[in-house]
Amino acid sequence: MLRGxxxxxxxxxxxxxxMPIIRTRKSPLEGRTPRSGGRGVVxxxxxxxxxxxxxxxxxxxxxxxxxxAVPSGxxxxxxxxxxxxxxxxxxxxxxxxIYATSGFRVNRRASPNPVQISGSGTVTIExxxxxxxxxxxxxxxxxxxxxxxVLTPFIDTPQGFTIFTFFASEIxxxxxxxxxxxxxxxxxxxxxxxxxxxxxx
Length: 201
Description:
Blueprint: H1 37-67, E1 105-111, E2 115-116, E3 122-129, E4 133-142, E5 148-150, E6 155-157, E7 160-167, E8 179-185, E9 191-200
Parallel strand pairs: 2-9
Antiparallel strand pairs: 1-3, 3-7, 4-5, 4-6, 4-8, 8-9
């Protein structure tokens, strides 16, 4: 199957092979039209499976688009857990649909946020997952103008907690007043979660 193509696009193009009817002895039902319910059950199962696959692909596609959008709003925090002054962007730090059943979540959002570009402190993100993510995760910063900085290499992400850290000054081109989108990618290039970081002097 081609990547990105839902099963429903081609499943009904498959030939239907009639099943042979085998009679080994006469039956009181002899002469009646045999039923072909088996093929109907299989067809319904395949339709349900294809629709499920399409829904998952579409949901991840929407998430991918959102992750690549222009940064807007932040989860204002010092500790990564408690929002300050009620500033909590609900779009930030969601889990990608393809990882919805993995137990993945962001335990501590990017903090501190905002961060001082002239400061020596580090920005920390802590994630937790119920199962190891093959190939690990990579942290990337993006702005709304095409700027992109890889902040960490792919870091092994085993079951349990993983911490990502970086200095705000490592974001190439970052200036006071900027908003940058932080995205964690898996080794297939799929965004797993994302959130925005505000830069201050």
